[in-house]
Amino acid sequence: CTAGPFAENGYLVECGEGVAVAVDPGAGARTMVEILRGGELSLAAVLLTHAHLDHVDGLSTLLDEADAPVYLHPDARAQYDALPEQAKRFGMPLDRPPPPPDEALAHGETLAFGSCAFQVREAPGHAPGHVIFWEEEEGAAFVGDVVFRGSIGRTDLPGGDYRVLMRSIREQVLTLPDETRLYTGHGPDTTVEQERTGNPFLIPHYGGELA
Questions:
Q1: Taking the mean position of all CA atoms in its chain, how far away is CA 54?
Q2: What is the DSSP annotation of 127-145?
Q3: Mind listing the pLDDT tens digit for each residue in 29-64?
Q4: Is-contact 71 142, C-beta < 8 A?
Q5: CB-based contact 122:73 (threshold 8 Å)
Q6: The pTM is what?
Q7: What domains lie within the chain, and their CATH numbers?
Q8: Beta strands in 8-102 (DSSP E)
Q9: Distance (Å, whole) CA 115 – CA 140
């Protein structure tokens, strides 16, 4: 679900057995609600890669429709609690702040919902407490704003750190199998191999830092 002025990608992931998981319900949350109202899927959880406004501003709308636990890394809590201030900074409307998160994410843990099993991988640098959700069996990773097709996440926002981001990409993205499909927070999806070999921010041939 791509929507909003930031064209943020949110995902409603079907996990079999009538179960679904929402990842980063930004402005696309209304589309998620419409799908859930179809009655074929029940929302089991909301997984947040990080707490920037564009990835969270539809959360209250989604939770009005489906009462599900919200998962967030503890290091992202300060930005989550400051969503009204984020909205003012960007001149964006915020209907109301979402409720406190229910569950604290930890690096290396696996979250199981229906047939899905998401491994949590800490990947800060773009934002404090940023994580990646890797579904190994499906060969998919929801990477938020860590890396994009042909680009990387910005590091000029509060809590950003370029060196930390590059380390996260090296250790948490490029260590995934090459065929892993990366579902990003903005823009089209990509693969680990495609970014390893062609992302100008990563490969030395184009002035990037990583092989």
A1: 11
A2: STT-EEEEETTTTEEEEET
A3: 989 999 999 988 999 999 999 999 888 989 999 999
A4: no
A5: yes
A6: 0.92
A7: 2-206 (3.60.15.10)
A8: 8-9, 11-14, 19-23, 42-47, 70-72
A9: 14
